[in-house]
Amino acid sequence: MRGLGFAEHGDLSRVGFVDIPEPHPGDGEVRIRVRAAAFNRLDRHVLSGIPGVPVERPHVLGSDAAGVVDAVGGGVEGLRPRDRVLVNPGLWDGTCESCLAHQESMCRSYRIVGEHTQGSATEFVVVPRRNVHPIPDGWSFAQAAAVPLVFQTAWRAIRTIGETRPGSTVAIIGAGGGVASAAVQVAKSLGATVAVTTRSDAKAAAARSLGADAVLQTGPDRPLDRVLWEWSGKRGVDVIFDSVGRETVARSVKALARGGRVVVIGATTGPLVEVDLRTLFWRQGSIRGSTMGSAREFEEVFQELAAGRLHPVIDREYDFEQGPEAFARLDAPDLFGKVVLRGP
């Protein structure tokens, strides 16, 4: 079976088409013929190699998938061949203390399709029945593939971990990727006043179109903490959604309101950060980590999407044979939204 991935870790030059065994569903599993797959920043880290996370090689990239049911294993109910479905890429064991408490993303065995398993940019994926959801009427496969990872990540980070409430101020650091475009919409849907930081006029316009109340330009003479402090009227920001890491987290802390939360969902520029603890304890703020979402949170945000209150944002779609070009698009400075690869 052919997929887009790599045989050895490294840079973009390592990305190409690879062959892996065709998967078959076991009991309680569903095989999906992929019609669209989407990439995330996570895929770049998988390509580079994540310390402590070994992957089978050759390895196929991609966490998000949408397609049609191809085959089912024993005990699977409620699905028929050719049903249009999308995949929740979070995998959990269902038996541990966290799973029994309905906190599946905290499962000690938690895995993500494309990071800990073979990915979605291929012909077939096999996942548990509980990870398969119907595509809403009127959606294309590309729209469905653009949803799962980023919206559950944004929903948990902003609503659950960030404790965003009506009237909260929320700052989204960076405006380009799929998770940022999801985060703006989620924060607005919760009644927050939302600012997005960027250095791009084009991204600023796109963020405003999603409902951002303010788009803040940062630069060498306008550091992040000063820009956020001024925007908040020198009150500080309640929730700061930060996926950048080393370059921004310390400044995000400086911009917190009393009792504010910096919610970290990634570390694109590096994982090691030096923080002034005096600011943190004096303002009684916190730095909180968030990963993916629980099964319940996935259902909650999925219902918002199905009802049309949130919507996927696609940067570009590519044919399968354009796979390497599509993946390289993740590094484009004008990226806004998800990069989608149509299935073979």
Short description:
The protein has 344 residues and is α/β, with parallel strands linked by helices.
Structure description:
This protein is of the alpha/beta class and 344 residues long. The chain has two domains: 2-147 and 312-342, Medium-chain alcohol dehydrogenases, catalytic domain (Quinone Oxidoreductase, Chain A, domain 1, Alpha-Beta Complex); 152-289, NAD(P)-binding Rossmann-like Domain (Rossmann fold, 3-Layer(aba) Sandwich), CATH 3.40.50. It is built from eleven helices and 18 strands. The protein has helices at 41-48, 97-100, 141-145, 148-161, 178-189, 201-209, 224-231, 249-254, 277-282, 295-306, 323-328; strands at residues 2-6, 16-19, 29-39, 59-60, 64-72, 84-87, 90-91, 111-112, 124-128, 132-134, 169-173, 193-198, 214-217, 237-242, 256-264, 286-289, 314-318, 338-342. Strand 17, helix 11 and strand 18 (338-342) form a beta-alpha-beta unit. The radius of gyration is 20 Å and the shape is globular.
Kindly estimate the percentage of residues that lie in beta strands according to DSSP: 25-35%
The secondary structure category is alpha/beta
Here the CATH topology of the largest domain equals Quinone Oxidoreductase, Chain A, domain 1
CATH superfamily of the largest domain: Medium-chain alcohol dehydrogenases, catalytic domain
Number of domains: 2
* Poorly predicted tracts of residues: none
* Overall geometry: globular
Order of helices and strands: EEEHEEEEHEEEHHEHEHEHEHEHEHEHE
Task: Return the CATH architecture of the largest domain.
Answer: Alpha-Beta Complex
CATH class of the largest domain: Alpha Beta
Largest sheet: 7 strands, mixed
User: What's the helical proportion of residues?
Assistant: 25-40%
Number of helices: 11
Distance linking N and C termini: 11 Å
